[in-house]
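Bench notes, bay 3.
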Amino acid sequence: MADTAKVAVISKDQLDEGASLYAQGGISVVLDKTDSIQSHIDDTLVAGAGLCDENAVRYTVEHARENIEWLIQQGVSFTRDGVTAETYHLTQEGGHSHRRIIHSADATGREVETTLLGKAKTHPNISLFPFHIGIDLITSNKQLDEQPNRALGCYVLDIEKDETNTFLAPVTVLATGGAGKVYLYTSNPDVSTGDGIAMGWRAGCRIANMEFIQFHPTCLFHPKAKSFLMSEALRGEGATLQLANGERFMERFHPQGELAPRDVVARAIDYEMKRLGHDCVYLDISHKPAAFIKSHFPTIYKRCMQLGIDMTQEAVPVVPAAHYTCGGIMTDLHGRTDIPGLYAIGETANTGLHGANRMASNSLLECLVFARAAADDIKQQTLRTPPQVPAWDDSQVYPAKEAIAISHNWDELRRFMWDYVGIVRSTSRLHKAKQRLALLQNEIRDYYSQHHISADLLELRNLADVAELIIDSALMRKESRGLHYTLDYPDSQATTKAVDTIINPRSQDHAA
């Protein structure tokens, strides 16, 4: 894209900070001769619990290999299998029927992201803006009262200078990740506050399937771990889940045991923890040779050792944690949203690939495939300089005297989302969450309208909007399917075709 147009990259933290940086497992792609495109498609459809868009699944899987080859051309170093110089080590993860996860040891996301960022830093057409956070999208109907509507850019807060800038662009791409920080416990970094989803929603984009929040089954349980993920590749290589007494339990919940889809594993762990009143369960790979563990999982081994846990000798305490937002802004196969000139990519988007449950290691693949699709689509357009728009007006607000209201509301929001809108839900819990959220949103709107903006305030506002979308979507689905499990409707509506939960901002009465 940067070869044909100037690109501004806005990052609200350091340029490399984001969920992709911490992706351990890898990228799913058909490379082994015993595997097939159709098998990858079938596995994805099964994991998606009847809600995947088969066209999106096929498009993604069929374009996987060319995107992996492109990464290799850019200098990304994947782990070799030791057999030949040309072949790569592939691992197997939950839901996959074959070994098809290409990886860079246990730090695939870091390898991909740092390699590409290194190229971006030296590209003459790419300008990088760290510590800048989007406030709201600029659209023609809102800022200029003109139709047809079109995205014109974004109002952006320079966090370090505490000043607001106007970024105008013929094309705007939202690639801000998911919203794991809406929950008390999450594997996501602090930046994952659903900013792009919330901005797209406020600008007029339809949002789909926000009830499907994936809880990763195995997040390291330790007071100093801060959301450190124990990769699913551990279970792919033979790690077992155990209770405190060493008893395995996954066979009671699914015939695939530890390699069952993530939603099944997370619910099983949640059930056992609540049944026994335990704070965690245990992940054990100590039966494997120490050299194997250290070579295949060096990052995980190092972090565990820093916390006094030797995974070559003992089981590791783990708990489920909010991990991936399967829903998001509705897009087509080019990444285009409802608003011309606005694209959404990655976890911010709902492409139809994941359905009701994302299969392991399909996330980085989706980022690659749809980023290229969007770039190819943008290249075919005649890009015109957008018109001038009014500057951000903060003349009627004043500096906040204290930040306690923001931190208190942030904590309350994340706690009731965890308690009422977590792994297992009920209609009464969802209504309680909705009532609590309504009070919070009134406070947030009043605070936002009266005070100078800050990064914390913007994130709180976005999290509240995303929380509303999750709650309303969950209330609209009168069944249990994939990642959405409710005590009031424990069975899926198997006799009817599964349908997406779509929330339209032009409809005021979208919640059940």
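Next record in the batch:
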Amino acid sequence: MPNTSTSRFEPVRRTAPDRGRSLLGPALELIHTGRAPTRSALTAALDVTRATAGAIAAELAALGLVTVDAHPIGSGRGRPSHRLAPAPDGPVVLAAQVHADGLSVALGGLGGVLSGRGGTLGEAVYHPLPASTEPEQVLTAIAAAGAELVRADRRRCLGAALALPNPVREPEGTALAALTFGWPGGTPVAELFAAAVNAQDLGPRTRHPLPTAVGNDATRLASLPTAVGNDANLVALAEHRHGAGRDARHLLLVTSGHRGVGGALVVDGRLHTGSAGLALEVGHLTVDPLGRPCPCGNRGCLNTETDPEALFAAAGRTPNPSLPLLDQARELARSADRDPVARAAVDRVVDRLGLGLAGLANILNPDRIVLSGLHQDLLEAAPERLPEVLTRHSLWGRCDQVPVVAAQLCHAGLLGAAELAWEPYLANPQEVLAK
């Protein structure tokens, strides 16, 4: 599967005659992440001449990936410059995510833009889990939902990626400790997802025929590139490139989705996944040794003390089983300013969350903490209490407070999956010609 690391842009010097071609990837990522909205900004970021930057932008436009405004704009200072932007009608990738209680899919374009049915921007398509949650059934269901979107869209699809709510071993793409559905450890999710996607009818714009060795006229369809990643890692990737984590050097993301808690770390612009993709399993940090039992076998993990089920348990309430658990938990957190029971539940869960964040801050020394999912609602419900608990229990927080901010992106897991699927093309934009 593609490397999930990000790039930190600093001026890049090239003296070889082909330096413009070698900078296509860095240039595309600068435009993709909004760091080079004009040709002059691209010139400065790449540390090249205006002519070289113009040639790079023109080649990316010829590949159908970006647009270059024909008329330069002025900012009041300096020479007017041409605007650069991802091509709105350019290719897309299929982004998919498995949740504890459902599936979601969207098409992801450059610029961190998602679209759902009919190309509606900023939307995703949700489906219930299939009756059987065995790996093959879940992955076939999400591949079929994604294929429906791909067929209905006029843009080319270059690849697909899946966000999973459990650890994923790299580079094999196997799921470990798949506690959400009880999948066996070592389930070959990347292999199964690739097979499920490429078994679908993806339409004529997605795959082209390739000659085979069987007969002169026989053909086979080229496979659509696919990848799989842990959902928290992919949320961090998306927030670092397009959201609340932009420009952070040491970004810690902690999130609680439909069930459980995940975390990820971006260090100097690169996603830190450890030796095998399994780093930052923050959900199994103990914050209450006498707390609720965790599927991992311990008690009082962050996983079970600060997720949606924990909030309902603290409030002594039972969620509606016919409605998404995360949505109900977020509404419960938002009601804390008018509901004393909800306030007490939020404070209890916030205290556990602050204790966990303090332990992580002591170990990792981040310069920014981004909270996503239910955790960002807890931060909004207790904007003073949560930082105070973190500061009180953090060695470094007492002398150098760590900013704790809410995530900014909707459907961040899907956006991160789209980033993962775009990786080969951000590394080498000319790869679009082979698809």
